[in-house]
Each structure stands twice: as structure tokens, then as C-alpha cells.
């Protein structure tokens, strides 16, 4: 009951509001075409008929939620997952690039943060470049990265993963650089009185202290890793993935395909973030249970 | 890591034969700050005998904590000499000659009380069975049996202080450096822990250096009281306590106790500690 009222109800309330707005938007945006049609046919169209018609146009400006839901159902449950028209097939392609890129990005972010915290020269010089790397508009740079990597012999999944990694290392560096510095002077002095080695200070003090900072960053990192993978699919003319699906939809004016790919990607992001939240809860529970640093 | 042997064997060779635990001669420490040099310690001469309970008392900035940190090798003197167990402070630190108790318990929140006490032992490479045995021993010593599996937040402030003392005792160093360990606790808990600390000192025979700015606490606990004064940090007076080693709390009402307290206060006044 408490889970229902605390977590489920607010989420459902927001969802209901979004769906209501969406329907209103569909009516507003699709109505001009209906009026146009009526005018051409020389007939008058009543409000009830107008609203009803905007709900199931073949080529709507903004498809109604139930149209997108039907499209998603058709392209997931009713298609073999190996089919090129299955959304599950496209999701699996994007997700594999996302996960590889996320892993690379998190690894890179951790290594940079360790360097920043332990090496004075790195601590002074790396952060501005890390920040500069994120001010570059990724949509403009992605094609160049893909081309450069292609000429280096890297393509397909790894090229997309590189863009995911490029985006997702950033929150990890920032959070870990902060988290690894979280232990106070006293805790560090204590380690010194025990003559602990730098490696022992890292594994027994700095890393555990950084974990509460790491997880929120991982949530951000995995969702932008997904965005990065989709962006990576746009310029490559790749045959699979949410990005390719969206591009296809836009070539053929199939708004429904774009929207179902969008919703599919959003659902994947929600699941990934949820998974990290679950791991976070398990890890922090194993580390003393009470919210001690968050 | 070094130190795979039994912890008690990690004392510097021959240290047990020495009668002085700490020997300072003309010790000075000057910090270079933005406002010019600050003399945290100047010309400190002090010899601490093995088994003594020495309190350092004085106002803020008198260098009592700095002196303790010098003994621990956490600060490096800029003049004079300092020996701990006949070694340089750094060598003594590497030989794990002392346990340090800070102002706050500084227990790692993600480790249980037992886990916190085992941490120095893990770092020193003590084998697991011995780690477990020692945790039990020192928890009993500070009166926390049965709390090994609790997390720090589940304990009161006084209990956390006990746990931090247990941690400093876990590797059986024979010197205990305590920097205002009970400063943040209320009077009642403090009395209780003072009694417990005396009992522990009597039982283990360790040398204790204890920083405080409470006169009754210093007089109640110590065999010697080092009165310090600020600007520059120096020793104003060293008072040998005439009180015996058996000290019930009621001793604080006796004329002998009040006489020692009066002398401490005089020493503080002579060092201009009441000027501002």
C-alpha cells in the first residue's frame, strides 16, 4: 500500500497528465488537415466528427497515443524478434552499443577521476578539458567521429559505442573526482597512522566513500549512453537500431514509426536507469543500510 | 604489505627495554602561512616515561594537538629532536608504535563496529582468525561486547567513542595518543568514559598521551599534567600528580585533587592563557 501511494500513484498521475496533453495536442495539430479535407470536399465538419477523425489519421502530424501504442504492439509482440520490422530487434542493436559504450565510458571516467585525485598535475590540467569535451555539439561531431573511426578500421557497434562512451564518461569523472575526495582529513590521517599504502587507502577508504556519489552519475551516464548510441546510428546509414528506425520513419514520412521508436527508446532508458537504481539500493544496503552519505 | 607476523611482534626491537616512550628536545614547529610564520611549538623539552598517563592542557593554539601529531609523525618538526620508542616519529609510525584516537570517532559508516576495528588489522596484514579474536578482545576491553555487528549509526556518541578507542587498541601498540576524544560528549557520558579509560589503562599498562582542555578531566586521569600556553606554543608547567593510581570519581571532591587543579589553573594563568 505504501509503495502504491508513494511511488506508483505519483508516477501514474504524471503519466495520465502527459497522455491527456498528448491527446489535446493531437486534436489541435491534426485538425487543420481535417478542415482542409472538408473544405476541399465542400462540406462542413462538426466538432465531434473533427475530434474523432484526428484520432486515426493515416499520416497525422502528431499521432494519438493509442495509435502509437498499437504500432508498438504490432512491431513488438506481433513480429518475430529477428524481423527487420521488429522494434525488439532494433532495441537489441541500440542497447548492445549502449551497454558497451556505457562500460567504456564508466571505465574511462573512473580512470580519469583516479588520476585527477591522485596526481597533482592531472588534478590541475584534466578537468577543463573534460568540461570542454562536453561543450562540443555531439550531433555535429558524431558523423566526424564515425568517419575517423571507420578509417581506423572501427565501425558498427564499436563506433556507436565510442559516441556513447564520449557522452557517458563525463558525469562519472565529475562524481568520482568529488566522491574520491569525500573522506575527511581525519579519516586520511587515521590511515596514515596505520601506515596504509596508497592502494589500501584507495580500496578501503576512498572507493567505498565515493560509491554514493557514483550511482546518481551512473544513472545519468546510462541514459546519455543510450542517446549517444542513437545519435551514432543517425549518420551511418545503419540498417538497425532506434536511430536507423527513426531515420527511416522520417524518410518515408511515417510519423508513427518515429514515435514508436522514440517511446521504445524512452522505455529502454527507464528500464536501464531503474536497474541501476536497484543495484544502488542493494549495494548501499550492504554498506550499512542507512542513507549515510546521500 | 609487511607485518605478517603477530602484531605484538611488530614493536621496534628493544623498544620494550626502553624506559622512555617519548623524548622531545628543543622541539620546534613553525608553519608558514599567508600571514607569515606561526610558531606552533617552540623549544619543547619533554620526556614521557613508559606506562605514564600524560595529559596536555592549554587553550586553543597552544600546540597540544600539534605536539601529539608530531609524535604520530603526522606533522614534521622544523627544529629540535623527537624520539618515539627510541625511533624517529616516522619510523615509529611505520613500526605501528601507537594507536591514535581523534576528536571524532571517525568510524567508517559502511563498516560495522567489528569491521571498523578490524580495518587497521587488515591493513597491517594480520591473518583473519587473529583479526576476529582481537576484535572480540578489544570490544570486551571497552565494554562493547555484542556490538560487533552493529553499524556506527546504531550506536550512541559515547559508544562510538569507545569503539574508536577499541580500534586504536586493536593492534596492541603500547602507546595511545588521544586528541580530545571525549570533547564532543556530554558531562555524564564523559565521566563514565573517563572511569572506563582509567580502568583500561590500569589493565593494559599502556602509555597514554591525552589532549584535553578540561582541567578536571586532566587532573582526574593523569599521572603528569603538561600545561601549555600559546603564541608561541610552549610548555608552561609540568605537574606530577600526587594522586594514586586508584581513582574513584569521588576523588574529585578531595583536597588533594583540588590542589592539583589549582596548580594547573595557576600554570595556565602564568602562561597568559586567560588573557583573552
TrEMBL record, chain A:
Topological relation to the membrane, as annotated: Multi-pass membrane protein
Ranges of residues in domain ABC transmembrane type-1: 87-284
Broad class of the protein's primary localization: membrane
Superkingdom, taxonomy of origin: Bacteria
Localization of this protein: Cell membrane
Coiled coil: none
InterPro entries for this protein: MetI-like (IPR000515), MetI-like_sf (IPR035906)
Record keywords: Cell membrane, Membrane, Transmembrane, Transmembrane helix, Transport
Matching Pfam families: BPD_transp_1
TM region positions: 93-117, 129-151, 157-177, 210-231, 251-279
Family under the similarity heading: Belongs to the binding-protein-dependent transport system permease family.
Protein name: ABC transporter permease
TrEMBL record, chain B:
Pfam families according to UniProt: ABC_tran
Signal peptide: none
Cited PANTHER family: ALIPHATIC SULFONATES IMPORT ATP-BINDING PROTEIN SSUB, TAURINE IMPORT ATP-BINDING PROTEIN-RELATED
Name under which the protein is recorded: ABC transporter ATP-binding protein
InterPro entries reported in the protein's UniProt record: AAA+_ATPase, ABC_transporter-like_ATP-bd, ABC_transporter-like_CS, ABC_transporter_ATP-bind, P-loop_NTPase
Record keywords: ATP-binding, Nucleotide-binding, Transport
Family: Belongs to the ABC transporter superfamily.
Annotated ranges, domain ABC transporter: 24-251
Amino acid at each position: 500500500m505504501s509503495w502504491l501511494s508513494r511511488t506508483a500513484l505519483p508516477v501514474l498521475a504524471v503519466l495520465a497528465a502527459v497522455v491527456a496533453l498528448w491527446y489535446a495536442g493531437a486534436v489541435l495539430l491534426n485538425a487543420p488537415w481535417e478542415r482542409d479535407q472538408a473544405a476541399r470536399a465542400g462540406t462542413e465538419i462538426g466538432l465531434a466528427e473533427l475530434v474523432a477523425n484526428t484520432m486515426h489519421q493515416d499520416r497525422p502530424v502528431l499521432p494519438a497515443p493509442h495509435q502509437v501504442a498499437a504500432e508498438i504492439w504490432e512491431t513488438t509482440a506481433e513480429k518475430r524478434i529477428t524481423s527487420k520490422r521488429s522494434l525488439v530487434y532494433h532495441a537489441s542493436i541500440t542497447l548492445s552499443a549502449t551497454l558497451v559504450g556505457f562500460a567504456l565510458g564508466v571505465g574511462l571516467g573512473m580512470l580519469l577521476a583516479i588520476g585527477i585525485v591522485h596526481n597533482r598535475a592531472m588534478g590541475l590540467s584534466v578537468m577543463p578539458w573534460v568540461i570542454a569535451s562536453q561543450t562540443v555539439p555531439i550531433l555535429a561531431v558524431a558523423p566526424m567521429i564515425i568517419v575517423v573511426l571507420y578509417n581506423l578500421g572501427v565501425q558498427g557497434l564499436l563506433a556507436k559505442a565510442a559516441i556513447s562512451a564520449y557522452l557517458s564518461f563525463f558525469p562519472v569523472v565529475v562524481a568520482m573526482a568529488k566522491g574520491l575526495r569525500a573522506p575527511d582529513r581525519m579519516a586520511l590521517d587515521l590511515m596514515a597512522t596505520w601506515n596504509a599504502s596508497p592502494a589500501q587507502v584507495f580500496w578501503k577508504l576512498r572507493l567505498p566513500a565515493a560509491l554514493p556519489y557514483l550511482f546518481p552519475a551512473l544513472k545519468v551516464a546510462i541514459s546519455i549512453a543510450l542517446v549517444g548510441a542513437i545519435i551514432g546510428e543517425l549518420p551511418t546509414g545503419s540498417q538497425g537500431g532506434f536511430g536507423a528506425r527513426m531515420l527511416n520513419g522520417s524518410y518515408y514520412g511515417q510519423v508513427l514509426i518515429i514515435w514508436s521508436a522514440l517511446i521504445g527508446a524512452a522505455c529502454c532508458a527507464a528500464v536501464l536507469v531503474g536497474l541501476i537504481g536497484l543495484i544502488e539500493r542493494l549495494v548501499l544496503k550492504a554498506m550499512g543500510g542507512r542513507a549515510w552519505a546521500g | 604489505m609487511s607485518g605478517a607476523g603477530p602484531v605484538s611482534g611488530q614493536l621496534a626491537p628493544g623498544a620494550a627495554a626502553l624506559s622512555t616512550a617519548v623524548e622531545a628536545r628543543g622541539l620546534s614547529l613553525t608553519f608558514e602561512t599567508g600571514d607569515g610564520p606561526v610558531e606552533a611549538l617552540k623549544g619543547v623539552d619533554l620526556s614521557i616515561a613508559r606506562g605514564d598517563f600524560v595529559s596536555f592542557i592549554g587553550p586553543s593554539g597552544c600546540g597540544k594537538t600539534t605536539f601529539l601529531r608530531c609524535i604520530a609523525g603526522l606533522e614534521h618538526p622544523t627544529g629540535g629532536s623527537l624520539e618515539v620508542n627510541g625511533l624517529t616519529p616516522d619510523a615509529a609510525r611505520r613500526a605501528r608504535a601507537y594507536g591514535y584516537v581523534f576528536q571524532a570517532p571517525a568510524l567508517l559508516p559502511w563498516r560495522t563496529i567489528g569491521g571498523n576495528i578490524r580495518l587497521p588489522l587488515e591493513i597491517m596484514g594480520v591473518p583473519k582468525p587473529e583479526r576476529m579474536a582481537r576484535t572480540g578482545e578489544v570490544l570486551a576491553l571497552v565494554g562493547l561486547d555484542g556490538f560487533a555487528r552493529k553499524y556506527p549509526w546504531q550506536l550512541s556518541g559515547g559508544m562510538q567513542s569507545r569503539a574508536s578507542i577499541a580500534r586504536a587498541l586493536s593492534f596492541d601498540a603500547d602507546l595511545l595518543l588521544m586528541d580530545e576524544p571525549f570533547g564532543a560528549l556530554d558531562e555524564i557520558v564523559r565521566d563514565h568514559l573517563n572511569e572506563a579509560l582509567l580502568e583500561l589503562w590500569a589493565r593494559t599498562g599502556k602509555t597514554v598521551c591525552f589532549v584535553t582542555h578540561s582541567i578536571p578531566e586532566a587532573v582526574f586521569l593523569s599521572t603528569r599534567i603538561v600545561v601549555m600556553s600559546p603564541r608561541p606554543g610552549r610548555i608552561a608547567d609540568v605537574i606530577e600528580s600526587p594522586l594514586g593510581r586508584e581513582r574513584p570519581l569521588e576523588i574529585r571532591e578531595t583536597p588533594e585533587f583540588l590542589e592539583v587543579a589549582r596548580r594547573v589553573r595557576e600554570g595556565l594563568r602564568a602562561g597568559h592563557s586567560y588573557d583573552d
